[in-house]
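Hey, I was hoping to borrow your eyes for a little while. For a while now I've been wondering how a particular protein folds. The fold is given in discrete form, as structure tokens running alongside the sequence. Could you read through the record and tell me how the tokens relate to the sequence? Take your time with it, there's no hurry, and the full record follows here:
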Amino acid sequence: MSEAVLEVKSFRTVVKDKHRELILVDSIDFAIGTKEVVALVGESGSGKSMTSLSIMQLLPRSVAIAGGEVRFCGTNLVGLNKRQMARVRGRRMSMIFQEPMTSLNPVLTVGTQLTEAIVRHLGASKMEAVAVAEDWIRRVGFPEPARIRN
């Protein structure tokens, strides 16, 4: 394996209430190298989504990372504040959610959602973001990208 792009060591996630602590992700270890494809598989309820959400630090308030490391390109993401993590998420690392019907907001146009992400994560102007969004729409095979964007 080449040098690890993502390395997870002794990683734990827990949910706490007033009386107890429940382990959701228990001391997992893995590494993913450059150009390596890895699948996380398991039974329903085995922790695949919670593992991914934990790595991305997209957790509900009652859930917390309880230990371990998540190294992305050499930087330990555990312990980064929200602003620092937001700079990693979307631009350098992202997650494809398993439920396609909840991935886009149905009250906003596709163009609004794409351009918002482009402006936020790529630092483009609104006009540049519109052009990039239309190019992305065209590249995935949709005809009339301007119409689709709107």
The longest strand covers residues 4-16. Residues 4-91 form a domain with the Rossmann fold fold (CATH 3.40.50.300). The chain is about 30% helix and 25% strand. The two ends are 44 Å apart (CA to CA).
